[in-house]
Prior knowledge:
Blueprint: E1 11-14, E2 17-21, E3 34-37, E4 40-44, H1 51-57, E5 70-74, H2 80-88, E6 93-98, H3 101-112, E7 117-121, H4 131-134, E8 139-142, H5 149-160, E9 164-170, H6 171-174, H7 180-193, E10 196-203, E11 211-218
Parallel strand pairs: 5-6, 5-8, 6-7, 8-9
Antiparallel strand pairs: 1-2, 2-4, 3-4, 9-11, 10-11
Amino acid sequence: MKPSDEEAGCLVSRGGRLYTRSAAPGIRVYGERLVSFEGVEYREWDPYRSKLSAYLRLGGGPLPFRKDDSVLYLGAASGTTASHVSDMVPEGRVYCVEFSPRTFRELVRNCDRRPNMIPILGDATRPEEYSFVVGSSGVVYSDVAQKRQADILADNMDLFGADRGMVSIKARSEDVTAAPADIFSSSEARLRDRGFRIEDIHSLEPYEMSHAMIYVRRG
Length: 219
């Protein structure tokens, strides 16, 4: 396994599997496989455990993250996907917002091992409550299971001045009676109404049912 020059070693694909270069060698976050090449450790990125990995496996991309980005991650849970994002921004930071106090305790443990991950106990619908911690952000990534998912992404991007954003839309969290395709279309339209350009939209099936990833840029 050898990273290409374009990937700069942060994200690589070999043999149909995805890997990120570990920012905390020797440490597993969720039991993932660790592999080495020329003394560099990589972590396998499981598409069944991460919607962002599923998006890439299904042909999405490229991702919006740069090595020195400040990333605001909404709905970080215990930090599974956020830890892979932290691998991809080794010179930046990942602000991890999680609402559940129980899940937050596990997130804090995972952040303790990664100095560029900052845990925040907060409500993604109220970004002003954690603005004093985050300051500004280049990218917002949202994985929040509730209504108004497109607006939650847009509200956070507006407040923190982000020019790139991704949102995992969970159709059943918006409306259990509506067709997922209709939910995805209305979310896309809402983001356009809020002033964002749609770069990509991908269904996440078969890894996640009734889910789609939307990638936007400002303007």
